[in-house]
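Title: Comparing notes on inverse folding

I've been comparing how different people in this forum approach sequence design from structure. To keep things fair, I'm posting one structure and asking everyone to reply with a full sequence. Here's the target:
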């Protein structure tokens, strides 16, 4: 029987950021009750059937560009990306 107590559970494993566990698009959809532009962006995203739920910030920016979103929504993506990355 091997001695597991002497082995680190992180041997050979790369650390995974919490933000990698939840895709940006899905995290953003959970922000609909939040105030400000991020909450507004999340509310809009929930009503958009083409929203990239499993996409990253760049996929969301592309979708905003494709749908002709207001410039404030691009700023909201920037702010949301910072929050998501620190999650």
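Reply #1:
Here's my take.
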């Amino acid at each position: 029987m091997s001695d597991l107590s002497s082995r680190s559970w992180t041997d050979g494993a790369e650390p995974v950021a919490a933000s990698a566990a939840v895709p940006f698009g899905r995290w953003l959809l959970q922000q609909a009750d939040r105030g400000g532009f991020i909450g507004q962006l999340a509310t809009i995203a929930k009503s958009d059937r083409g929203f990239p739920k499993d996409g990253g910030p760049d996929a969301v920016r592309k979708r905003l560009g494709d749908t002709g979103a207001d410039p404030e929504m691009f700023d909201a993506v920037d702010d949301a990306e910072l929050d998501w990355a620190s999650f």
